[in-house]
Amino acid sequence: MSKVVFLSGAGVSQESGLKTFRDMDGLWEEYDVMDVCTPEAWERNPVLVNEFYNQRRKQLINCKPNKAHELIAELEKWFEVSVITQNVDNLHEKAGSTNVLHLHGELTKARSTVDENYIIDLKEWELKLSDKCPKGAQLRPHIVWFGKAVPAFDEAIEIVNNADILVVIGTSLNVYPAAGLVNYIKEKCKVYVIDPETPKVTSANVEYIAEKATIGMNKLTKILLKTYIN
Ligand code: OAD
Description:
Elements: E1 3-8, H1 11-14, H2 27-30, H3 33-36, H4 39-44, H5 46-61, H6 67-74, E2 80-85, H7 91-95, E3 100-102, E4 105-112, E5 119-121, E6 139-143, H8 153-161, E7 165-169, E8 190-194, E9 206-209, H9 213-228
Parallel strand pairs: 1-2, 1-7, 2-3, 7-8, 8-9
Antiparallel strand pairs: 4-5, 4-6
Helix pairs in contact: 6-9
The protein binds 2'-O-acetyl adenosine-5-diphosphoribose.
2'-O-acetyl adenosine-5-diphosphoribose binds near residues 10, 21 and 104.
């Protein structure tokens, strides 16, 4: 079975009603990333940071995966599929993808501020500033703050390095180290980029599908089945 790896970003969830970050009307137009997504912001104003992620979590309850998430999951019938996502939503999992690596954390989880191994599933959307870990320390959103190391990065490199096909979907490739993953492909790895505003990927084998995620995934699914499955 060929190995297909998706590197996804906010654009894949845009048609599910979630805002991207850097598009016009994106989240970083409304908020300053430095106020809600850094260790300093959490120290300075945990109420604001916690509320920002509570609102994102609340909004997620009513969000459904779109056709792009669904087609990515469906490809598991024919390919060995891995999803490496920068997204903190759970729409890939909701669509049925079984192999999802979150680079930037997960909205539906909280973590201890003193014990890095203590990560729990949240049962409801609201994380309260009175919620504590068993060691008595404050729980915080399970988000990789800007400027901090990405713990899943080494695992992601290995996955990308083994890909026969890499699909970059719905990401501006502005944020490192995630954006650098495209540099770890094997020489003969085929690359597809699905994005209405195609970001630059330098590879001899790159093909651009300049569409929104749902239309782009429809096209890509046909291409993959025709090219790789008899
Ligand atoms: P961006 O907002 O930077 O980029 C979104 C990309 O999606 C752009 O290239 C858009 O052209 C594209 N796009 C918009 N609508 C689309 C659609 N319907 N279908 C397909 N593509 C579409 O988001 P990311 O690249 O995901 O980090 O941002 C990376 C990281 O920056 C995020 O994980 C987040 C943010 O700060 C953290 O929160 C830690």
